[in-house]
Amino acid sequence: MSVPRTGAPAARAVRPTPDGHGAAGIRVADALRTSILDGDYVPGERIRQEVLAERYGASRVPVREALRTLEAEGLITLVANTGAWVAQISLAECEEMYQIRERIEPLLLRLNLPLLQPGDVAELERLADAMETADVEEFLSLDRTFHLSCYDLAPTSVLGDLVVQLWNRTQHYRRAFTRVFRSEGDRSVHHEHHLLVAAIRRGDADEAERVLAGHIRRTRLELARHPEVFAGPE
């Protein structure tokens, strides 16, 4: 079944107060977020509140809080009086999101680059090395850590949350892309990671922006070659 779509943009995520139902809502949101990002659910899959309540030993109230939190993060689509689905996007929507990422992630990296310390750069190098021999799921986890850790030092009121939301909404499709480039023996993604680390180490913001924009663009173009990955569940 395809996810019913709404045109309203997702709000900035607000975590509930961690007491009573709030603490349970955070617990459910954290567990469900991990499951969605790990691919345990597919885009367009129905999420039933009663199943979550039983699985996580919670009442309906914190489950609803958790679903609202994940909706704000771009992972869930809620339709009033209808239900919840794992967020699903079309090829056209994905291309638009990647074009946004091509423009805003380099800016966010530039804002963070002066704040990255030598130890941070060494960790980025370690992650880039580890991704070369990782399996698909480990690669996705390392890749997310690699990129998002470059973005979380500079304080932003909008940009950081927007980038994370776009990463969340395209997670399933990056998984599909990862399988494609591995099956084709394409190692350019690893080369780009190392080029990015080198630019960051030099403090060369212009080159870091250029490499990152090209890195995101290449993924967008590869995804466009495989429209089948955007088919939802029957």
How would you classify the helix and strand content by structural class? mainly alpha
Helix content: 55-70%
Could you list the spans in which at least 5 consecutive residues all have pLDDT below 50?
A: 1-19
Distance between the termini: 5 Å
Q: Compute the average pLDDT.
A: 87
Task: Give the second-level CATH assignment, the architecture of the largest domain.
Answer: Up-down Bundle
Instruction: Kindly report the oligomeric state of this protein.
Output: single chain
CATH topology of the largest domain: Four Helix Bundle (Hemerythrin (Met), subunit A)
Number of helices: 10
Total beta-strand segments: 3
Structurally, the number of domains stands at 2
Q: How much of the polypeptide forms β-strand, as a percent range?
A: under 5%
Tell me about the largest β-sheet: 3 strands, antiparallel
Write out the strand line-up for the largest beta sheet, numbering strands in chain order. Answer: 1-3-2
Which descriptor suits the 3D outline? Answer: globular
Protein name: GntR family transcriptional regulator
Domain HTH gntR-type: 22-89
Keywords: DNA-binding, Transcription, Transcription regulation
InterPro entries: GntR_C, TF_FadR/GntR_C, Tscrpt_reg_HTH_GntR, WH-like_DNA-bd_sf, WH_DNA-bd_sf
